[in-house]
Prior knowledge:
Chain A: InterPro entries: ATPase_AAA-3, CbbQ/NirQ/NorQ/GpvN, ChlI/MoxR_AAA_lid, P-loop_NTPase. The complex is a heterodimer. Chain A has a 5-stranded parallel sheet. Chain A has a two-stranded parallel sheet with strand order 2-11. The longest helix of chain A has 17 residues, at 13-29. Chain A has 2 domains: 11-185 and 215-221, 3-Layer(aba) Sandwich (Rossmann fold); 229-325, Orthogonal Bundle (Helicase, Ruva Protein, domain 3), CATH 1.10.8. Chain A has helices at residues 2-5, 13-29, 34-45, 60-69, 86-90, 124-136, 171-174, 188-200, 216-227, 233-248, 258-274, 282-293, 301-305, 310-320, and strands at residues 49-53, 71-72, 75-79, 91-96, 101-106, 113-117, 138-141, 144-147, 153-158, 177-182, 214-215, 252-254, 298-299. The model of chain A has no long low-confidence stretch (mean pLDDT 87). Chain A has 14 helices and 13 strands. Chain A is of the alpha/beta class. By secondary structure, chain B is mostly helical. Chain B folds into 2 domains: 49-130, no CATH class; 141-238, no CATH class. Chain B contains 10 helices and no strands. The radius of gyration of chain B is 51 Å and the shape is elongated.
Amino acid sequence: MEQEMFNQRTDLTQLSAAVDHIRQTLGKIIVGQKDVIDLLIAGLLADGHLLLEGVPGVAKTLSAKLVAKCISASFSRIQFTPDLMPSDVLGTAVFSPKTAEFQFRHGPIFGNIILVDEINRAPAKTQSALFEAMEERQITVDGNTYKLEEPFMVLATQNPVDQEGTYRLPEAQLDRFLFKIEVKYPSLEDEIQILVNQHQQKSDDQLLNIVPVLSVEQVKAVRSTIKALFVEPKLLAYAAQITHETRNNKSLYLGASPRASLAMINGAKAIAAMAGRDFVTPDDIIKVAIPVLAHRIMLSPEKEMEGLTPADIITQIIKKIEIPR
Amino acid sequence: MRLLLALFLFLSAASVHAQTGQKTIVYKKPIAVKIYSTKVELRKIDREAIKTYSKQKDFIYEDAAPETLTWWDKFWNKFWKLIDKLLGNKISGSVLKVVLIAVAIAAVVFIAIKLIGLDFRLLSGKSKSLEVPFEESLENIHEIDFDDQISNALQTQNYRLAVRLLYLKTLKNLSDKQLINWLPDKTNQAYVLEIADEGRRDEFSKLTNQFEYIWYGEFFIDKTTFENVNQSFHDFNLKKA
């Protein structure tokens, strides 16, 4: 009805079709987890890096691989281990006897979709290797800068339970992830459906039948469309106020950076586009607020002792601020 | 072999004895003692001078109580006398001691908890349901004269603002009919989901979308479109609870 009443300003046909296709593709293999799938798609559309967190066996890696499979782009997988070195990720200069010169051998970071599995198993030194790549889309080795090809997206997974052999991600790196998506246990019904699907499945490899939905060029086009979506000035102020409140909240030891406000608006634009709108509403901002902020803030020790989570504090902050209307 | 060992031990013991038997004579230089020959003069305390000093005001150290007590001093004197009396009593004294100790412990615990910054509700297991006070709402829908403001907006042909006021008026009506619980932090979609009646919810959802397209999306709205939107809002608001 609204489409009839108001002439469409932005053509979202291709985007809507792609989103539906990705949802269907992921939905065939990932049972339930609707919010996780939506945030994965939103992250892809918003040109952000995603951190999937969940206990072992909840299909974090599978979800990341499925998203990568939906795009016909180069895909790399890096299994982070305690002995991984930065050169194993970025690449290294190798001496060539033929030319008697050092030649740079590209590491697995040179790809479009990079799956970093178990990211918190590598020490800070190796994790730091991703800083420049994730933010500036380039790497610098031996004084030479190498641009990374667009689209460039890091999909990382981590297990929040393991303590042994893991390293907490540096704050600077956490801030570079657009969303931290918490993958939770499925419901009983969903778990039964997982078993039924597995039982009826003929092929061993579910990923073989996945057909890419978007080309590299289409991803670029969709991303530029989303960047141009309309945001009412009061909603920009609303997002900024949410972030600002994290810096003044007594329950928090560390608030979110301005990058969080930018991420919130970009994420909200992607959610709006997925809903077929070319403008953002407060609901879109609220929907992405926790995935954007939860990994960027640190609770005060007292609140941690009380058993509160970053999501609880963000919810309190949102409830404190009046919806612009 | 054994014989040789025994002989060796015997001879060793004999030599040790021989050494200890010798005496060493040490000659020391005699110390010369000097006798202090200065004459010592014995001095006596002047009794008269002591008597004179003891009569002087500066050397009288008596703690004389102030002649007039203030009401505050009188209060504390009475208070401490009462405490002494109570503590002096075997029964009330012991009870009071226990009470005072309990109060002191409670005060220490309270100060410690406040200093650490722990939440008292932690003890009752309700810490997660922290209440956050709302910041003062800039606009209370129950205090707006909607008809007046809508007519003002229409006079200036500000149809976008008029639609916003229509939507706020609808929220007020729904709140008055107790179909929604109006709160500043709730989003439009939250209100949509709050309406129990499915038919009414669908209608309100359509109105909400219209409002969002016009207000958040800043879609252009002319007089004709506004009249259509206005009619939809009017029909919805006429419905009984």
